[in-house]
Amino acid sequence: MWLRRCVAEEDFxxxxxxxxxxxxxxxxPPSSPSLLxxxxxxxxxxxxxxxxxxxGLDSDVSFETPSRLLEIKDDATSIKLxxxxxxxxxxxxxxxxWGKDDVGGWKTTMATLGSHKTVGLNVSLLPKTLQHSLRITxxxxxxxxxxxxxxxxxxxxxxxxxxxAKMAGVYFGxxxxxxxxxxxxxxxxxxxxxxxxxxxxxxxxxxxNTYFHGAWERYHGIFSGVAYSGLVLxxxxxxRGWTFQEHRLPRRTLYFTSDQLFWECxxxxxxxDNFPMKQKLGGHPILDxxxxxxxxxxxxxxxxxxxxxxxxxxxxATDKLVAVSALxxxxxxxxxxxxxxxxxxxxxxxGLMWRREGxxxxxxxxxxxxxxxxxxxxxxxxxxxx
Length: 386
Description:
Elements: H1 43-51, E1 68-72, E2 78-83, E3 92-95, H2 113-118, E4 121-122, H3 128-139, E5 144-146, H4 148-151, H5 157-164, H6 167-172, E6 176-179, E7 200-203, E8 217-220, H7 228-233, H8 244-248, E9 252-256, E10 261-265, E11 269-271, H9 295-310, H10 325-334, E12 339-340, E13 343-344, H11 348-351, E14 354-356, E15 380-382
């Protein structure tokens, strides 16, 4: 039977995780949970996924670890910035939309770096999304988290460039990525208005577009049952350019949407309302050698990535290639070809066959060659043939 505990906004998410012996992991699951994990029907599978280092990936791709992490105290009321010095430390990563206000000067800068490492930081000074992510992380018995605004020195272009180059490793190497999908800014938080709702389970009726583990099901009542595609793929988070690779790179993600919680890993997707969904197949065709069937498949994958990414918004047009560089770097480890202004040398003819969708404009600056898709301030489409 599906088990679910309705919890308050400030009181969320934990589970009785079992250790996975597939591969030794430095992550130790909690032995005595304080709360009930929403996906209890599939609890064993999820706990094994969280405990496994590679989550079933046949990958020899290697990445650098982040330079800094935030250590969360047991009560999640204070944090301290720590240098990893190359150590393998189990951590969560946060994917979220920034906001405009920086009240209290909580970000890590050259001026605050020292105090963040020695004295630490009171969690109450942080925006709500960051506060919630710390509580979620601790409820999973993970003591460290990576958050860009605090783990990268914000007023140091040198540090920013250094850490941006490690972005693939940051998200791929995390135990789990927490995605604040329903939050338009860091002030909105992770939890949604439905945190106390209950619903009843019924038999399959009209939902013919989804399939999960051979069972057709639906829920009647309070939950709307809005699909994953609407709550995750069409969320505020999914419209931002920088979060594109944060969606593609993690091995495991918990999506906190405006309606419910979703779990995603290399093996499946599942929703908190238990609506059946298609199994996720081949989430990392570049990182997982099982899905690298040919150069043609890799080429089509990358062109599809560029199309999807071009539809997202960036605050600074100069970030066009930087914000997708982690994916390019991971692809380069599998396909060691020169990467030129967003195109691969061995398939540059295919890479040039793009057109602008709609009116659109070109960027005013001359950082990229005119033939690159990165010059466009609009979505592009590739003229490929299957």
